[in-house]
TrEMBL record:
<dbReference type="InterPro" id="IPR005467">
    <property type="entry name" value="His_kinase_dom"/>
</dbReference>
<dbReference type="GO" id="GO:0005886">
    <property type="term" value="C:plasma membrane"/>
</dbReference>
<dbReference type="GO" id="GO:0004721">
    <property type="term" value="F:phosphoprotein phosphatase activity"/>
</dbReference>
<keyword id="KW-0472">Membrane</keyword>
<dbReference type="Pfam" id="PF02518">
    <property type="entry name" value="HATPase_c"/>
</dbReference>
<dbReference type="GO" id="GO:0016036">
    <property type="term" value="P:cellular response to phosphate starvation"/>
</dbReference>
<dbReference type="InterPro" id="IPR004358">
    <property type="entry name" value="Sig_transdc_His_kin-like_C"/>
</dbReference>
<dbReference type="InterPro" id="IPR003594">
    <property type="entry name" value="HATPase_dom"/>
</dbReference>
<keyword id="KW-1003">Cell membrane</keyword>
<keyword id="KW-0418">Kinase</keyword>
<keyword id="KW-0547">Nucleotide-binding</keyword>
<keyword id="KW-0067">ATP-binding</keyword>
<keyword id="KW-0597">Phosphoprotein</keyword>
<dbReference type="GO" id="GO:0000155">
    <property type="term" value="F:phosphorelay sensor kinase activity"/>
</dbReference>
<dbReference type="InterPro" id="IPR036097">
    <property type="entry name" value="HisK_dim/P_sf"/>
</dbReference>
<keyword id="KW-0902">Two-component regulatory system</keyword>
<protein>
    <recommendedName>
        <fullName>histidine kinase</fullName>
        <ecNumber>2.7.13.3</ecNumber>
    </recommendedName>
</protein>
Length: 421
């Protein structure tokens, strides 16, 4: 049946429904017209225009409450008849493939072409998807054993993606079936990140706990009556508890940052005053590491919208890292300058050390949680492996960016670009 035939049939159904719903009113009207003309003695031919007008009025849509249920159903039927499977498939955002009883592709939407490529009507699904789980899924649905089924499937090329695939028959007696691929890649990635985070956090806490437990056992045994050993072991235990306390504080900071919504600009932060405060607070650490902190600030007001405490934490973490890991360079340069990054007005704060630098392969991952370039050096410097991750989260809330540049043997520069509006 063509779309035109379907439309004509649907319109006829609507008119018939309207006449049926108005049947009693129409009968009463016809009777009244006949009686009126009979008493007036008018010719029967004069009745025709009146009856036609009455019939036309009966076929008009009912006023007030709108169309009847039958009329609405008829209109819905017309709309569904005009919708083809191709239009319906195109409206689905996930990859969708329609196939027949021979497991041959009948139609695939644009999302399926983009995800899998090389898909066209006439291609055999078992040849396209050779994974055992996909073969089992197709067999179970085509054999009639199950009306619908779901499996997990991983596509390896061009990039690895994980899907939850559902297969089901289309209607009754159509000999058509549909595959829908729900992308689970992001969910799986988040699950892996969560598992890795828990494993790393557990490891970081377990190490000092094991150390403390070992020293307690020693103090209760061989070193019970050894004052020198007792003092040494207690100092180590104090250092380990401090390490755990710092780790817990950083974990809580990350948790709070992730639960907060994005920062709404409003409060102005004076970067000159904030960075000066950070430098003053870390002066003892710089002296301890024999590092001189130099300033190079632009003139005039240096204000940006943001949260002062959070930005203080950003520059504190960056400057602390520069003093610890760039210690061999002997100095750290802190500069503030007005800059235009990609035509976006803002202020750049750069903290540069002149130490050993960071190998290029580590730079893309250095802001990941618990990622360390040198595990032993990091632990010696009392690092938790979370400082730069906290920096990244705070800057994201401020719509700011962190740029890292480094050359082995020449130090590293961490630049923060903060928008001014």
């Amino acid at each position: 049946m063509t779309d035109l035939d379907a439309g004509q049939k649907g319109m006829a159904q609507i008119l018939a429904a309207r006449l049926w719903n108005s049947r009693w009113l129409l009968a009463a009207g016809v009777a009244a017209v006949l009686i009126a003309f009979a008493f007036a003695g008018v010719s029967a031919y004069a009745l025709v225009p009146a009856l036609l007008l009455l019939l036309a009025a009966a076929m008009l849509p009912a006023a007030g409450l709108g169309q009847s249920a039958d009329g609405a159903a008829a209109i819905e039927a017309i709309g569904l008849q005009r919708l083809s499977g191709e239009y319906l498939a195109a409206a689905v955002a996930d990859p969708l493939i329609i196939f027949d009883h021979a497991a041959t592709i009948v139609h695939a939407n644009a999302a399926a072409f983009a995800a899998f490529g090389g898909i066209a009507p006439g291609i055999s699904l078992p040849l396209k998807f050779r994974a055992p789980e996909m073969q089992t899924l197709l067999d179970s649905v085509l054999s009639g054993t199950l009306a619908s089924d779901v499996v997990d499937y991983t596509e390896k090329l061009p990039v690895e993606r994980a899907y939850r695939v559902s297969a089901s028959s289309v209607g009754h007696g159509t000999d058509l079936y549909v595959l829908v691929f729900k992308d689970q890649s992001e969910t799986r990635r988040i699950d892996r990140m969560r598992a890795d985070f828990i494993a790393n956090a557990s490891h970081e806490l377990r190490t000092p706990l094991a150390s403390i437990a070992g020293f307690i056992e020693t103090l209760r045994g061989p070193a019970r009556n050894d004052p020198a050993a007792r003092e040494q072991f207690l100092q180590i235990m104090q250092n380990q508890t401090g390490r755990m306390a710092r780790l817990i504080d950083d974990l809580l900071s990350l948790s709070r940052l992730e639960m907060k919504p994005y920062l709404k600009p409003g409060t102005e932060v004076d970067l000159r005053q904030t960075v000066d405060s950070v430098i003053d607070s870390l002066a003892p650490l710089a002296r301890e590491n024999s590092v001189a902190i130099e300033r190079d600030f632009a003139k005039g007001p240096l204000n940006v919208p943001g949260d002062r405490d959070e930005l203080f934490q950003v520059f504190e973490n960056l400057l602390e890292n520069a003093c610890k890991y760039g210690q061999s360079g002997g100095r750290v340069l802190v500069s503030i300058a007005r800059g235009d990054l990609d035509s976006e007005p803002g202020i750049d704060v750069t903290i540069r050390d002149f130490g050993p630098g960071i190998p290029e392969e580590h730079i893309p991952r250095i802001t990941e949680r618990f990622y360390r370039i040198d595990v032993e050096t990091s632990r010696t410097q009392k690092g938790t492996g979370l400082g730069l991750s906290i920096v990244k989260h705070i800057l994201t809330r401020h719509n700011a960016r962190l740029t890292i540049k480094s050359e082995v043997g020449k130090g590293a520069a961490f630049s923060v670009h903060l928008p001014t509006h």
